[in-house]
User: Which sequence fits this backbone?
């Protein structure tokens, strides 16, 4: 049986844009929904050791 090897894939960032997205977080207890916080996700392009990379940062904002 032949061994299958993944081929390297070249990704182009031409169609990608840096972005930031905020989503609310809800907790449901005993059938009651309550907003308890939000998440913020940022996607940006960076250079690490001379190579292009995509950095994804996700932050949770909540008092509980």
Assistant:
């Amino acid at each position: 049986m032949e061994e299958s090897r993944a081929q390297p894939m070249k990704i182009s960032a031409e169609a990608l844009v840096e972005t930031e997205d905020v989503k609310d977080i809800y907790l449901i207890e005993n059938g009651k929904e309550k907003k308890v916080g939000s998440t913020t996700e940022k996607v940006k392009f960076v250079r690490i050791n001379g190579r292009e990379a995509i950095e994804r940062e996700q932050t949770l904002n909540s008092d509980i």
